[in-house]
Amino acid sequence: MASESDVETAAADLRRQLAARLEKDGWLRSPEWRAAVEAVSRHVFIPRFYRESVGPGVTTWEPVTPETVGQEEWLRLVYSDETWMTQFDGRDIDWADPKPVSNAAPTSSSTLPSLVVRMLEDLDVHEGMNVLEIGTGTGYSTALMCHRLGVESVTSIETDEGVARRARQALTRAGYIPRLLVGDGRAGHLDGAPYERLIATCGFRNVPPAWLEQVRPGGVILTTLRGWMRSLGLVKLIVTGDSASGWFSDDDPSFMIARQQDAPESLGMVPGPGDGTTRKATHGPEVLTSSGPAFMAQLAAPDARFFAMPVDGGPVCTFLLDSVTDSFAVLAPTDSGWEVRQGGPRRLWDAVESAVTTWEEYGSPNAAAFGVTVSHGQQVVWLGNPNGPQWPLPT
Ligand SMILES: C[S@@+](CC[C@H](N)C(=O)[O-])C[C@H]1O[C@@H](n2cnc3c(N)ncnc32)[C@H](O)[C@@H]1O
C-alpha cells in the first residue's frame, strides 16, 4: 500500500468492518450513526498516536506512525476499537520525530470508538438539535456529529490550545467546520445556547452549573463523573428548568479528568504514629479496590486518595488521605482483621464503612441503581430514588 488512493480504499474497507463490529457488539444501534462511522476517516484525526508498550517496569508509550509500524499496520490500528493517546502531561509532542514516553499521564486521546458511538446513541440526538461537546480532543467524535447533524448544529470546546489547533486542522481536512472554541468547557458557550444536547468526553467531579443554564428544559446532559480515586461512571441527566436529574449507566466507563479538576500534586500530610484515634475496622482496604465498594468509597470520601506502604519496618498499612480537609485514615492489619486510626475534621473510614453498609443493605447493586440530582445549590448522588440515601458531590 503506497499511494494516497490505496490508503483511502483500504480505510473505507476498515471503516465498514469497524461499523459492522460495533453493530454486532450492540454499540451501534441506528443506521444514521452507522453511516457516520462508515463515512468519517479516523486516520485523518490520528495520523500519529501512542500505544502502551508491553513489558515490565514503568509504563512506556511508543509512537505509532506509518513510519514506525508500516502503513498497513498503522491503518489497521487506527480502525481498531482502541483508545489511542495523543498527548501526555499537557505537553506538545514533536510529531515530526515522536519519541517513546514514560512516567507521564495521558492528557488527550482518541476515545475507543465503541464508547464514542455508544455515547452518541445514548445522547438520543436528532436532526435539527443544537449540540455542545466538551473535550474536542482529536476531533473524531466532533466529526461524527457533524456528519450526522450538520456543522451548524455542532459546537465543541477544547481546553488545550495545541490539541484544539490540530483538531481544527483535521476537521477542516475532513470537510467539517463546526463552531470550535478553546477554553474551559465548564463554562459552556453562552453565545451558542440553548443546546438540546450536551456531551462531555472528559470526566468531571461535578456537573458545572453553566451547563444547566445553557441546556434547554427537556434537554440531555451526558457526562462521566469521576473522583480522584476512580470513575463513578456515565450519567444521563434530563434538564428541568434550573435543575437536572438522571441515572448512571450499569457499567463505569471512564474518561480522563478535566484538566482544571485534577487532584492536587500533594497527597496530603502523612500522619505521625501518635495522631488520631484508633478503633477496630469492619472493612479492610480491599474496599478501596473492589468495584462496588470502591464506588461507595469514592462517594463517601470525595476528596481523598490512598496508597499503601510499610510503617516503621512493620506491616504494610493503607493511608487514605484527604488533602482538602487534612483528614486521614490509616488501616493496619491485626491478628483478627484490621484496625483504623482516624484524624482531622472528616472521619473518613466511618463515612466509607457507613456507605458500604448502606450499599449492602440495598442488595449490593451496580451503578445503574444510582442517580444524580443537580441544582444550583447542591449536587447529590442518590441510591434507589431521589429521596434515597444521598452523598454530596464536591462543588
Ligand atoms: C478523551 S479526550 C476527548 C476525545 C475526543 N472526543 C475524540 O474523539 O478524540 C478528552 C479531552 O478533553 C480535554 N479537556 C480536559 N479538560 C477540559 C475542559 N475543562 N474543557 C474542555 N476540554 C477539556 C482534554 O484536553 C482532551 O483533549
Word description of this protein:
- With 395 residues, the chain is an alpha+beta fold.
- The chain contains eleven helices and 20 strands.
- The protein has a ten-stranded mixed β-sheet with strand order 8-7-6-9-10-11-12-18-19-20, sandwiched between helices. Strands 13-17-16-15-14 form a five-stranded antiparallel β-sheet, with no helix packed on it.
- Helix 2 packs across helix 7 (140-149).
- Bound molecules: S-adenosylmethionine (SAM).
- S-adenosylmethionine (SAM) binds next to strand 5, helix 7 and strand 7.
Question: Topology of this protein?
Answer:
Blueprint: H1 4-24, H2 31-39, H3 42-45, E1 49-53, E2 60-64, H4 66-69, H5 71-78, E3 84-88, E4 101-102, E5 106-110, H6 113-123, E6 131-134, H7 140-149, E7 154-158, H8 161-174, E8 179-182, E9 195-200, H9 209-214, E10 215-226, E11 231-240, E12 243-248, E13 277-281, H10 291-300, E14 304-310, E15 316-322, E16 327-334, E17 337-343, H11 348-361, E18 370-375, E19 379-383, E20 390-392
Parallel strand pairs: 6-7, 6-9, 7-8, 9-10
Antiparallel strand pairs: 1-2, 2-4, 3-5, 10-11, 11-12, 12-18, 13-17, 14-15, 15-16, 16-17, 18-19, 19-20
Helix pairs in contact: 1-2, 1-5, 2-7, 10-11
The site of S-adenosylmethionine has 27 residues, from strand 5, helix 7 and strand 7.
